[in-house]
Design goal:
The protein has 306 residues and is an alpha/beta fold. It contains eleven helices and 13 strands. The chain binds D-malate, manganese (II) ion and zinc ion.
Length: 306
C-alpha cells in the first residue's frame, strides 16, 4: 500500500493566516526551523494508479496540483486518479475541499450517517453539489468496526471504520454531544501483503478499540494536534482544552507518546498537527523528545510504502 500525506496540518494549517504564535510568526519571519503544512488530507493506493482520497481539505486544489501521482495518465485532457473519497468526520478542515472537486464530479463519497446528516443540514455540501455533474455519490460507512468496505478503485485494500471519541464541528447539532459515527478512524488492510495502517487524525481517548487497532497496526498515523492539553488556553486563543475539542495531547501521562510507546509498531507517525504545537520547531526540545522515542512527524509530500 502506498500512502501520500497531502496535508499534515490541523485546521488553519501552518502558518495560519491570522496567527502570530511562536510557530506561525517563526515560520513567516524565517526565524525557526519548521516546515509549512497544509490542512489535513491523505491519499492511499494499492497499485499507485488509482487513489482513494481520505478527507478533503480546504487546501485540496494546491495539494493535487503539487502531487503528480494524482494526475491522470498522459493524453487525458480532463480527469483525475482519485477514484473515491472517504470522510472521517464533518469538520471544515476535512470536507471543504469537496467544493474544490466540483468540476470533476460525480465522485463516490463514503461517510457515516451522522456525518452525512451534518453535510446535508448544517453544512449542506451534498445538497449544493447535486448541481454539478451529478454531484457527490453518497456511500454508507457503518459504525461497526467489522463492517469492511471497498471503495471504488481500492484494489486489494480493505477499509474498516473505527469509532473514535473526539468532537463534532461547532456548526453541528452533535457538538459536545457526539454519537458513534461523528468521528471515525480507519483500519486499512492490504489483503495481499496483510499490512495494516491505522489512521486516526482526531482522537481524544485511548479506548479499548483504539488499543486493539494499535496492537494490530504496522503503521499508525495518529492525532498530533496539540503538545499540551491547555495549549490553546495558554496561548490565549480559546477557553477550551484540547480534549474538549476532541484531541488528546501528545505529551504527558495520558498523551499520545505514552500511549504509542506501549506498542511495537513499525512506524508511528503524528499527523493533524496544529500550528501552536511546539513540536513543529525541529530545533525544539519537544521535537527532540519525539524523535528520541522513534515517533515521526508527518509533513506535506511525505510518502509511506507499507
Ligand atoms: C479539529 O479537528 O478540531 C479542527 O482542526 C478544527 C477546525 O477545522 O477548525
Ligand atoms: Mn481537524
Ligand atoms: Zn499559530
Amino acid at each position: 500500500m502506498q500512502i501520500l500525506i497531502l496535508g499534515a496540518g490541523a485546521g488553519g494549517g501552518v502558518p495560519q493566516w491570522n496567527c502570530h504564535c511562536d510557530v506561525c510568526a517563526g515560520i513567516r519571519h524565517k526565524k525557526i526551523n519548521a516546515k509549512e503544512r497544509t490542512q489535513s488530507s491523505i491519499a492511499i493506493s494499492s497499485d499507485g494508479k488509482d487513489w482513494i482520497l481520505i478527507n478533503a481539505s480546504p487546501d485540496l486544489r494546491q495539494q493535487i496540483n503539487h502531487e503528480p501521482k494524482l494526475w491522470p495518465e498522459d493524453g487525458v485532457k480532463r480527469g483525475t486518479s482519485i477514484t473515491s473519497i472517504i470522510l472521517t468526520d464533518s469538520q471544515i478542515d476535512h470536507t471543504t475541499g469537496l467544493l474544490t472537486l466540483r468540476e470533476g464530479l460525480p465522485l463516490p463519497v463514503h461517510c457515516t450517517d451522522v456525518v452525512y446528516e451534518d453535510l446535508t443540514t448544517g453544512f449542506p455540501l451534498f445538497n449544493m453539489l447535486k448541481h454539478w455533474h451529478g454531484g457527490l455519490q453518497r456511500r454508507v460507512i457503518e459504525t461497526d468496526h467489522t463492517a469492511a468496505f471497498k471503495p471504488e478503485g481500492c484494489g486489494t485494500l480493505e477499509f474498516k471504520p473505527v469509532v473514535l471519541e473526539s468532537n463534532a464541528p461547532p456548526y453541528s447539532k452533535y457538538r459536545d454531544n457526539i454519537v458513534p459515527g461523528n468521528n471515525i478512524g480507519l483500519k486499512i488492510t492490504d489483503t495481499e501483503t496483510n499490512k495494516v495502517l491505522f489512521y486516526a487524525p482526531g482522537c481524544m481517548q485511548a479506548s479499548p478499540l483504539v488499543k486493539q487497532m494499535l496492537s494490530e497496526a504496522d503503521c499508525v498515523l495518529f492525532d498530533g494536534t496539540l503538545w499540551l492539553d491547555d495549549e490553546m488556553i495558554s496561548n490565549g486563543f480559546s477557553d477550551r482544552l484540547g480534549t474538549q475539542m476532541g484531541h488528546m495531547p501528545v505529551n504527558g501521562e495520558n498523551g499520545a507518546i505514552a500511549m504509542l510507546n506501549e506498542y511495537d509498531i513499525e512506524r508511528k507517525i503524528l499527523i493533524h498537527i496544529n500550528n501552536t504545537n511546539p513540536v513543529l520547531n525541529e530545533d525544539s526540545s519537544a521535537y527532540e523528545a519525539l524523535t528520541k522515542q522513534s515517533i515521526e512527524l508527518a509533513y506535506d509530500g511525505m510518502e509511506i510504502t507499507l
